[in-house]
Design brief:
Elements: E1 5-11, E2 20-25, H1 28-40, E3 44-51, E4 60-61, E5 64-75, E6 81-98, E7 104-110, H2 124-137, H3 152-162, H4 167-174, H5 179-189
Parallel strand pairs: 1-3
Antiparallel strand pairs: 1-7, 2-6, 3-4, 3-5, 5-6, 6-7
Protein name: ATP-dependent protease
Organism: Cognatilysobacter bugurensis
InterPro entries: Lon_prtase_N, Lon_prtase_N_sf, PUA-like_sf
Length: about 190
């Protein structure tokens, strides 16, 4: 059995499955990572920084993170590389090592995919909250098929992405494996 590894890009933000994050990339270690991903089609992991800097040093990342796929890229007016990342699968890092250039590589286990389960009646109000949030933002997901609006996991991730939550709260939601437990936690956060 081979050990699966994933390079990490620790950030002071949480990338959620299906969510997006925009990044400005300027450090050599991450420019090398992006080049490698472009050449090989590989992905990398985004983890919330628990301690340490976002640039210029080695940070201590959370053990649960999200696989990031590069969805778009561009050069900013200042010449820096701009990336739009899309969150995919969740993972748990077992062990980490640091390359000579400071890039962290984690041995990982993939978390189980979210089951496709309908939103339970006690969480039905959260579906309306997601619809209103997406409509106000002019988000194309507002017109998503009704099936998505009945998917407990999708509703939970969109709420966790759109609500004004702390990074620590988003991280705790990312670490929950049960989409219904995630919705219950979100319901308790909404007054």
């Amino acid at each position: 059995m081979s050990i699966e590894t994933l390079p990490l890009f620790p950030l002071h933000t949480v990338l959620l499955p299906g969510g997006t994050v925009d990044l400005r990339v300027f450090e050599a270690r991450y420019l090398d990572l992006v080049r490698e991903c472009g050449r090989t089609g590989r992905t990398f992991g985004v983890c919330l920084i628990l301690d340490g800097p976002e640039s210029g040093g080695v940070a201590s990342p959370a053990a649960v993170g999200t696989e990031a796929r590069i969805e778009d890229f561009d050069l900013a007016s200042d010449g820096l590389l701009m990336l739009r990342l899309r969150g995919a699968r969740r993972f748990r890092a077992r062990r980490m090592r640091v390359r000579d250039n400071g890039l962290q590589i984690a041995e990982i286990d993939w978390c189980d995919s979210d089951p496709e389960e309908p939103v339970r009646p006690e969480h039905a109000a959260l579906v309306d909250v997601v619809r209103r949030l997406l409509e106000r933002a002019g988000d194309p997901d507002a017109g998503a098929p009704g099936r998505q609006f009945n998917d407990a996991a999708w509703i939970g991730w969109r709420l966790a992405e759109r609500l004004p939550l702390s990074d620590a709260t988003r991280q705790s939601l990312l670490q929950l494996d049960d989409p219904h437990a995630r919705l219950q936690r979100l319901l308790s956060l909404i007054d």
